């Protein structure tokens, strides 16, 4: 082949290869981009923080306040929510170990306010708004809080309707009517879809034996239901629209894109990495006024656990069962004596059982609640009753319980085997 024809042949081959290489590179880049976006949405913990475009890439502590008063405009045109905050929550979002920690602060918590003396903590917002509230809670917990979100409960009502309601296991019959507070609560036990009005009633109801603590426990049920709802891609894609429509009911120093990142992070945190606890304390009185009296030593322990480090399960060998207080709730349909059997086994292991009673709603699968972010204790208790049940960090029983066992039908056979051996 003459040299000129040979060179021409080589050049033609090169030209034919270029589109192929370009096409392959383009497909690879598009595929990589789609993969990164998909991981950002469905599993952001696998994405390096530099590539987390729609999920958190830094640790955040956020104060969430719920208030039943309306927005008013300041002279400069800025928005504020007047009145007391009935819901006070501190969220800690840690994308580096993929954990979500939630600290519920009872509205009746006793706090000393400069210039006002001893007051209930929900009074803070009436005095100085969300920034002042944030600063005071920082001093109580001895942590830094990055941002705040204040939600008007009537706005929450509309948001729940916008996302199609939430599925909740209502634990008991709830009936209460208050025209002045715009409350008409009429709920019955069982698993059901709650619309906005019903969900707000579920969260605000406090007319049971535990008062505000019972209300906080229902808030925790509500939060878990919201997290499950966020797992629905259709719900998640509605967030920008929801945020835009209901800006008038939300007051925050977070930008819309930051809220979306936080929501995307929360929806991807597995339940085993969620810590939900109540501010340690006890019911008490001061100057003839009822308060939730905070226990500063226990608060310091909780803060170290959920805001700074994860528990080391090697601590299991150091547990002393006699120091552990346990509540047992029997939700079984098949065995009316299941709660008593569990309590007897726990006492044989040396635990202190402070409550054993029936649960109003049927439960098929057992849940074991670590009420003080003490996951190592919950693991040990689960092992002692046959290693059955889902571990959750949250509150269901009396506030002085370390662990609450919500026993379901799945625990019957294992408990009967253990009892027959004893």
Report the end-to-end length measured between terminal Cα atoms: 95 Å
Q: What is the number of independent domains?
A: 3
* Oligomeric category: single chain
**Parts with pLDDT < 50 across at least 5 consecutive residues:** 21-39, 311-317
Superfamily (CATH H level) name of the largest domain: LCP protein
Instruction: Name the overall outline.
Output: globular
As a percent range, the share of strand residues is 25-35%
Q: What tags apply to this protein structure?
A:
single chain; 422 residues; alpha/beta; Aminopeptidase; Alpha-Beta Plaits; 3 domains; six-stranded mixed sheet; five-stranded mixed sheet; 12 helices; 21 strands; 26% strand; globular
Task: Produce the secondary structure layout.
Elements: H1 3-42, E1 60-67, E2 71-73, E3 79-81, E4 85-94, E5 99-104, E6 110-113, E7 117-120, H2 124-141, E8 147-152, H3 153-162, E9 166-170, E10 174-178, E11 183-187, E12 190-194, H4 196-204, H5 212-230, H6 233-237, H7 239-245, E13 250-252, H8 256-267, E14 274-278, E15 281-286, E16 289-294, H9 296-308, E17 325-330, H10 338-348, E18 352-358, E19 367-370, H11 375-384, E20 390-393, E21 403-407, H12 412-421
Parallel strand pairs: 1-8, 5-14, 17-18, 17-21, 19-20
Antiparallel strand pairs: 1-4, 2-3, 4-5, 6-7, 8-13, 9-12, 10-11, 15-16, 19-21
Helix pairs in contact: 3-4, 4-5, 5-8, 10-12
Account of the protein in words:
The structure is a single chain. The chain has three domains: 3-42; 60-308, LCP protein (Aminopeptidase); 313-421, Alpha-Beta Plaits, CATH 3.30.70. The chain has helices spanning 3-42, 124-141, 153-162, 196-204, 212-230, 233-237, 239-245, 256-267, 296-308, 338-348, 375-384, 412-421, and strands spanning 60-67, 71-73, 79-81, 85-94, 99-104, 110-113, 117-120, 147-152, 166-170, 174-178, 183-187, 190-194, 250-252, 274-278, 281-286, 289-294, 325-330, 352-358, 367-370, 390-393, 403-407. Helix 11 links the parallel strand 19 and strand 20 (390-393). The termini are far apart. It is built from twelve helices and 21 strands. The relative contact order is 0.10. With 422 residues, it is α/β, with parallel strands linked by helices. Residues 21-39 and 311-317 have low confidence and may be disordered. It has a six-stranded mixed β-sheet, with helices on both faces. Strands 18-17-21-19-20 form a five-stranded mixed β-sheet, with helices on one face. A two-stranded antiparallel ribbon has the order 2-3.
């Amino acid at each position: 082949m003459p040299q000129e024809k040979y060179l021409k042949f080589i050049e033609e081959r090169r030209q034919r290869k270029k589109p192929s290489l370009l096409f392959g590179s383009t497909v690879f880049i598009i595929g990589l981009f789609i993969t990164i976006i998909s991981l950002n949405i469905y599993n952001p913990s696998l994405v390096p923080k530099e590539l987390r475009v729609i999920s958190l890439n830094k640790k955040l502590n956020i104060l969430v306040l719920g208030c039943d008063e309306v927005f008013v405009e300041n002279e400069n045109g800025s928005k504020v929510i007047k009145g007391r905050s009935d819901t006070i929550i501190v969220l800690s979002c840690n994308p580096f170990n993929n954990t979500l920690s939630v600290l519920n602060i009872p509205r009746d918590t006793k706090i000393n306010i400069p210039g006002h003396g001893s007051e209930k903590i929900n009074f803070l917002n009436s005095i100085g708004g969300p920034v002042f509230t944030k600063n005071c809670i920082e001093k109580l917990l001895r942590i830094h809080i990055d941002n705040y979100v204040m939600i008007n409960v009537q706005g929450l009502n509309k948001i729940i309707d916008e996302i199609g309601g939430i599925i909740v296991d209502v634990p008991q019959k709830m009936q209460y009517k208050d025209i002045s507070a715009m409350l008409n609560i009429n709920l019955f036990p069982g698993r059901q879809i709650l619309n906005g009005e019903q969900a707000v009633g579920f969260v605000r109801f406090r007319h049971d034996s535990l008062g505000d603590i019972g209300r906080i426990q229902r808030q925790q049920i509500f939060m878990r239901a919201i997290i499950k709802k966020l797992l629905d891609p259709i719900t998640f894609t509605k967030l920008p629209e929801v945020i835009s429509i209901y800006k008038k009911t939300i007051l925050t120093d977070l930008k819309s894109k930051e809220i979306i990142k936080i929501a995307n992070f929360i929806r991807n945190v597995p339940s085993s990495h969620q810590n939900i606890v109540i501010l340690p304390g006890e019911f008490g009185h001061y100057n003839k006024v009822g308060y939730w009296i905070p226990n500063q030593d226990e608060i310091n322990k909780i803060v170290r656990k959920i805001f700074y480090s994860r528990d080391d399960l090697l601590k299991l060998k150091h547990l002393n069962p006699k120091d552990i207080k346990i509540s047992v709730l029997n939700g079984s349909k098949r065995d009316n004596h299941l709660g008593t059997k569990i309590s007897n086994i726990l006492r044989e292991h040396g635990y202190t059982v402070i409550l054993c009673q029936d649960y109003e709603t049927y439960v098929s699968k057992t849940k074991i609640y670590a009420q003080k972010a003490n996951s190592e204790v919950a693991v040990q208790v689960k092992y002692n009753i046959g290693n059955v049940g889902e571990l959750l960090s949250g509150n269901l029983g009396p506030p002085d319980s370390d662990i609450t066992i919500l026993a379901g039908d799945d625990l019957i056979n294992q408990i009967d085997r253990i009892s027959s051996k004893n």
